[in-house]
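Morning F.,

Quick status update on the modeling queue. The single chain you submitted on Monday has been processed. Sequence for confirmation:
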Amino acid sequence: MSTTPTLRILSVSSRMPYPAGWGFARRVYHLVGGLAERHEVTMLCYSVPEDSAQARAQYAAQLHRLVTVPAPGGGTLAKRLAQGRSLASRTPYLVGEVRSAAIQSALDELLEHEEFDVALVESSQMAWLRIDGLPVVLDEHNIESALLRRMATSETSHLRRAYNKWEHVRYRWHE
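Structure tokens below.
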């Protein structure tokens, strides 16, 4: 009987996928959990205040290592202001909302001090990260530009329709 060599996988996500109470989280949780059964998986992800210490500990127990960074952002007003500022940028808001120096710094630290065979990046939103020296697998849950196009055509608010059309164009370029 042949054995499959254990890989050292670095998984990077825009959110901690535990508890897995929504589609993206459920998918990432089961994918990474399945990989962790046979391989050494380190997860780097954002954490939000709702992610309790107990949830982090329960999820970390399934992995080789869990590294979390506080998620960027703020309340609704901060989000609307960031969406408005993003209109003048080529970077779609959906990418800008998860872009931070903190997660890039944590990633650089991991890459400097640990060895990995492959990086698994969850979602094109996180594809801006600089990952040098590793093969990178981009795992897509959705085709975000297609979702934005659908949102633009079904939106009843003219302002939101125009915003989603522009976000669709920028995200399509990003993808």
